[in-house]
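One example copied in:
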Amino acid sequence: MARKDTTYLGIDGGGSRCRARIEDGNGRLLGEGTSGPATTRIGVEKAWRSIMEASEAAAAQAGLKHEDLSRLHAGIGLAGHGRRGAEAALERIAHPFASVLFISDGMAACLGAHSGADGAIVVAGTGSVGVGLIGGREIRLAGYGFPISDEGSGADIGLQVVRLALRAADRRAKMSPLLSEVLSAFDDDPYQAVAWSEEARATDYAAFAPLVLRHANQGDPIGRRIVERAADAIGDLLDLFLAKGIDRLSLVGGLSDEISPWLTPDLRSRLKRPDADAVAGALMVARRRFVLPERETDRQPIPKFRV
C-alpha cells in the first residue's frame, strides 16, 4: 500500500515523446516533464536518456534536486519493452530511483484507461498495438514494430503515402493534391525521398500522418483510401477483443481522435473515453496498486512446410 509520505514517478515512454509525472502519496501532482522519443527501437541507452530528461524536468518543476530522485518510486511504461533483450538491458541500468518497475507503454495505457479493471485499448499513435486485461491475463495483439507491423499507425500511414507518391512521380499511379504535397517535401525529387528513407525512423514517417488525414477529410481519394485502410486495421484489433469477451474498449494515442470517425458506427458506439492516461497507469505500477498480469498472445506455433 502506498504511504502518504512517499513520492512516485510515472513515465510514458512512447515512439514520439516521453512524459513524466511526479505525485505524492495522496495523488497530488508535484511536477511534469517531457522529452523526445523513448522506445527501445532507438536503443535502450537513447531511450533511457529521454526517460531521465523527462524525469529531471518533472523533478525540477516539483522543486526536487537530482539527489532527491533517490526517494522516487518509479513505474515506467516503455515502447518496445517486449523486444528481445530489452528487458535484460533495462535491468542492467544503474538507475537513481528508490525502485523501478518496467512495463510496456501499451500496458500502461490499458491500466490508465480502465483504472486497472478488465478492458482493452488499441493504441493509434506513431505505432499501433492492442493490449487487453481479462481475468488477470494480459492479451497483446499486433504491435511487432514498424515497418513489419503497426498497421493503422502514423508510421504506417506515412509509409503508404510516401510509396504512393513515388508511384505517382513515375506516372504508375494518378497524382492527387496529397501526393503532390508529399513530393514537394522532397523538392519533387524521388531520389531525395529515397535518400531520406535510408535514414528515416518511424517518427519521421509518422510526421506525414496529419497531412494524410487533412487531405482525406478534404476528400482527396488517395488520402481517403489510406485512412480507410488504417481504420480497418484498428477496427480489426477492436473486433478481436470483442470476440474474446472484452467489452470495455478505448482508443488511445496521438491519432485516436482523428481515426475514430473513420471506424464503423458499431465500433464507435462501443468505445469509452479512457479514465486516465498511460502515465496514470505507470503510476499505478509505481504505487504497487496492480499485480502485473500473465501474458497471453494467442499466437499459435508457425506451421512447418516441406519444400
Q: What stands out?
A: The chain has twelve helices and ten strands. The first helix runs from residue 44 to 61.
